[in-house]
Design brief:
globular
Length: 308
């Protein structure tokens, strides 16, 4: 059982690790000042790909639930995170996500009745301390709008995480749980389609042709950073407590700041290294405080396809 749990945590952690590469990819490969275009080209192709593989459509209440989750986890989150990535250098935008474990703990307590224990609060506080050490040592200029977008994206993702856990996996007409492949596809399509409307209204379609570098950047973000990452995330979320899964999200700023140092030549001082170590300890402690469900799937009465 231990090896199964470790494997589950490892696979789930791939999601925030891959998300941590978003900021470097955005600044190095994508055209400037096109956050909505980036969100659409990241979400919609990934969702259509997963839908083609799963070949399942939502039933009953899962049409509006998919849209709600798609907006929180994809639409609003992508738009805000890309705005933050364009306006904040390096991993600063991802570092703001350090508040997410504490935010999820509060929401999960109210919505899922998950207990907010002192050890979990201390682990969450350690995570915030760790990212604060990283931020304080950053020589980057902090943009107010970029910080607001980063905070908004964190709140949106936290709400989506808790709601996805509350609603669980829907049931097929045969009474079996629908796979995370299908539910991930629905959310990506819903979020990507909603972003498409905002793209047409606020940004418009691109007038300049995309470069080869742009295309490679979008392909990486869509296939690896979105389709694969979100599939790992929602699969793990169906088995892990929401509070424990949220701690894995702290790996994203660690990856972002390390990539900024290794690839983009950003400085990393001694306190930043200490901050990274504190974050990793916080992740280990936060995840160990929760244990996966034995049945592997969270079910709720409202998940039935018979509900309208």
């Amino acid at each position: 059982m231990l090896s199964e749990n470790v494997r589950l945590i490892f696979m789930t952690s791939l999601a925030p690790v891959l998300w941590g590469t978003t900021y470097l990819t955005t600044t190095m490969f994508l055209p400037a000042d096109r956050p909505l275009l980036a969100g659409v080209l990241r979400a919609l192709p990934a969702g259509l790909l997963l839908l083609a593989l799963s070949r399942q459509l939502p039933q009953g209440s899962w049409w509006w639930k998919s849209w709600a989750l798609g907006m929180l986890n994809i639409g609003a989150f992508f738009a805000l995170s890309f705005i933050a990535a364009y306006r904040l250098p390096g991993g600063v935008a991802a570092i703001v996500g350090g508040i997410q474990p504490l935010l999820v703990a509060v929401l999960a307590s109210a919505v899922l009745n998950e207990k907010v224990t002192l050890p979990r609060v201390l682990a969450g506080a350690a995570g915030v301390l760790g990212v604060a050490l990283i931020v304080l040592q950053s020589q980057a200029r902090l943009d107010a709008l970029g910080l607001a977008a980063a905070v908004g994206g964190t709140v949106s993702m936290a709400g989506g995480t808790v709601l996805a856990k509350k609603w669980g996996q829907p049931l097929s007409r045969a009474g079996r749980p629908v796979t995370p492949l299908a539910t991930t596809a629905w959310q990506l399509i819903a979020g990507g389609a909603s972003l498409s409307i905002l793209l047409l209204v606020f940004e418009g379609l691109p007038t300049d042709p995309l470069t080869n570098s742009n295309v490679l950047g979008y392909l990486y973000l869509s296939i690896v950073g979105t389709a694969l990452a979100y599939l790992c995330w929602f699969r793990g979320l169906s088995r892990l407590p929401a509070g424990a899964a949220a701690f894995l999200g702290l790996l994203s700023p660690v990856v972002a700041i390390v990539l900024g140092w290794a690839v983009a030549g950003q400085s990393m001082g001694a306190l930043q290294i200490v901050g990274i170590a504190v974050v990793l300890v916080s992740v280990a402690a936060g995840v160990s405080l929760g244990s996966p469900r034995r049945d592997g799937v969270t079910r709720h009465p409202e998940s039935s396809v018979l509900e309208n």
